[in-house]
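DM from R.C. (forwarded with permission)

"hey, sorry to bug you on a friday — could you get me a structure for this? deadline for the figure draft is monday and I only need the backbone to look sensible"
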Amino acid sequence: MIADLVYQINLGENIELPDFITDIRIKRHSKVTFYYKEKNWQPEPLTLERLKEEILKKEQKILNYKTSDIDILEYWLVLLIGSLSSVSYELNETVNYKTDSKFDRVYLMSDFSADIIRVK
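My reply, with the result:
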């Protein structure tokens, strides 16, 4: 739907934008920027299962880091949570986030309060 809107605007058609898009600007380069409203957004609590999924995604790259020419003693992972985005999460104080990882240490860092929690 968004691609169709951009295409129609690029053709010079005068169309009405949906509520979640406030502006579309087309410039002479390959970059496309969207501004949209997130209505009634509240972050979901971070679950231990979701945390493990995110760590696993990063662990798939750790072998590339360890095979580099740089001699590094420990590999740490810092995951930022709590930003102003609908894809972010907030900490649930009742959850024990301790988990295992191929990283030597894993931290969760809250965007606004700068709280740092070591989970491994």
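R.C.: lifesaver. Residues 44-118 form one domain.
me: no worries. The helical segments are 2-10, 48-59, 62-66.
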